[in-house]
Amino acid sequence: MTTIAILGAGKIGEALLAGLLKAGRAPSDLLFTERYDQRAAELTERYGVAGVDTPEAVERADVLVVAVKPQDIEPLLDLLADTVRPGTLVVSLCAGLPASLYERRLPAGTPVVRVMPNTPMLVGEAMSAISAGAAAGPEHLDLVEEMLGSVGKVVRVPETQQDAVTALSGSGPAYFFYLVEAMIDAGILLGLPRAVSTDLIIQSAVGAATMLRDSAEHPVILREAVTSPGGTTIAAIRELENHKVRAALLSAIEAAAVRSAELGRAHDPA
After folding, report:
1. What range(s) does the Pyrroline-5-carboxylate reductase catalytic N-terminal domain occupy (predicted)?
2. Binding residues
3. Which of 231, 100, 119 is closest to 171 using CA atoms?
4. DSSP string spanning 34-80?
5. Rounded CA gap, 38 and 55, in Å?
6. How far apart, in whole angstroms, are the C-alpha atoms of residue 203 and residue 21?
């Protein structure tokens, strides 16, 4: 069996660890690194997976999943540069960091797969986009797709599209949370108790998302089905259009893509 080491067992790293175990991976085939000893002990107790230091993870693992924060990547790459074994697959979950950064710092020919997941991984509903680096082949993408399929849905994209993916689905949950927060406040403004407003909006969001996923209908068709002539919904839609909500969303997502590209250039100016 392939041994997988997750370098950085934060929320996303732990979610992937849990998903791999749920999908049938044996604890003995998994490793993780964690800078805080108490948390490492808690994770080992919770999952039965060994917490190790980075050199041991590199020595034992066939796949290294890099799940540290982008600002922590440089010291990790310094450590990996002289220790990664030939043929080891490196999977990057770090937002904005291109495969070329790893390829430039790691031994020649190291296969790298760049991934943009999102936080619904914590509930097994991630949307992850994967891209092959220069030395990664179909077999590497197959393995990464299998791994990430344990915590949600996976799509393959060219790496040139990863900044757009980061802006759209990587940051996407925050946009929905922001919208839900505003709608809950609107319910309170209209006189509803916070708990009632929250229940109404969350269940409406869950139901709408399920309809989008399961009906195969275009969002316009689903929206029009709610929008009766002269009714309440069209009055609300008119206000959204008057306030240029659609244009604001386009601009916001474009800004996120620009920032993703900036993060990549900061670490890999080439």
Report:
1. 3-96
2. 67-70
3. 119
4. -S-HHHHHHHHHHH--EE--HHHHHHH-SEEEE-S-GGGHHHHHHHH
5. 20
6. 30
- 270 assigned to some structural domain: no
Quickly count: other Cβ atoms within 10 Å of residue 114's Cβ: 29
pLDDT tens figures, 58-88: 999 999 999 998 889 999 999 999 899 989 9
Domain boundary among 129, 161, 193: 161
Q: Sorting pLDDT into bands at 50, 70 and 90, what band is 264?
A: confident
Q: How far is it, in rounded angstroms, from Cα 241 to Cα 220?
A: 15
- Number of domains present in the structure of the chain: 2
Judge if 61 and 104 occupy the same domain: yes
Tell me the C-alpha to C-alpha distance, in Å, between residue 166 and each of 155, 227, 248.
13, 32, 18
Give the predicted TM-score (pTM) of the model. 0.92
pLDDT in tens, 90-108: 999 998 899 999 999 999 9
Can you say which residues are annotated as belonging to the binding site for NADP(+)? 67-70
Do 127 and 180 lie in one domain? The reply is no
